[in-house]
Amino acid sequence: MSGKSDKKKPLVPSLRFPEFREAGAWEVKRLGEVANISMGASPKSASYNDQRIGLPLIQGNADIKDRKSSPRLFASQITRECWVGDILVGVRAPVGMVAKSEHHACIGRGISALCVKGEDRQEFLYQWLLWYEPHWVSISQGGTFDSVNKNEITNLVALFPNPSEQQKVAHCLSSLDEVIGLQAKKVQALKQHKKGLMQQLFPAEGETTPRLRFPDFREAGAWEEKEVGEIFKVTRGEVLSMRLVSDMPSETTPYP
After folding, report:
1. What is the domain partition of the chain in residue ranges?
2. Model confidence, pTM
3. Residues of the chain with pLDDT under 70
4. pLDDT tens, residue by residue, 191-238
């Protein structure tokens, strides 16, 4: 029996740019249709080096920093390669970690590299994979190290609008990434500034006055050395028994 309840809702996002509101539904595609997928293969460890012989080696999360490739070693034996601009996806724990390659590099078995083919947009796929990142756990295989294989990546289903809308969405989200990156740099600079101030506002080991002091305390003399017990009352924590827990009021609201 058919009816209104049988009709499927169109595959469109809840928020859409005005010029694309009448552009129709997004198209269901598998990643294998959209991108060339290269699964990494680890070279022999004997080929690892720090003399820049061969190509930079990207093995996994340890070679990613701030969503960008950051290789620690080189490999003289080249197995599989990625190129500048490729999307890197972790295929071993943490499964689904997403980054961008800034290197022509050798990729180990913890990494896959994706490059969009045809008219679809690389940046749109990158942003979609970022959105999908928390969902990988639902398809990763159990074991000591969770992992996904090429078949699972190839058959992963995503929704794609036309290339023009892809470009608009990608530009919007990547612009926010740039703002986030700038703010992160500011936070890091402030942390370094505070660290430097702490080194000067507290006396160095073996000294009794700090190197940097506020004007109204410059003639206040040396700092006094005290044991922590003189300043604080130190108590030892105890484990709350199960009996006491069960006696807590029933009105206590649990965390969601």
Report:
1. 14-161
2. 0.77
3. 1-10, 140-145, 237-256
4. 999 999 999 999 988 888 999 999 999 888 889 888 877 787 777 766
- C-alpha count within 13 angstroms, C-beta hemisphere, residue 75: 20
Q: In what order do the strands lie in the sheet with 105-107?
A: 48-49, 73-75, 55-58, 105-107, 80-82
User: What are the residues facing 159 on neighbouring strands?
Assistant: 28
Q: Distance of alpha carbon 71 from its chain centroid, rounded?
A: 16
Q: If we measure between CA atoms, which residue out of 125, 130, 126 comes closest to residue 159?
A: 125
Contact 121, 172 (CB under 8 A): no
Upstream peptide bond of 94 is cis (omega within 30 degrees of 0): yes
Take residue 1 and report the two structure tokens written for it: 């029996």
Task: Kindly report the CATH number that applies to the domain delimited by 14-161.
Answer: 3.90.220.20
Longest dimension (CA), the chain: 91
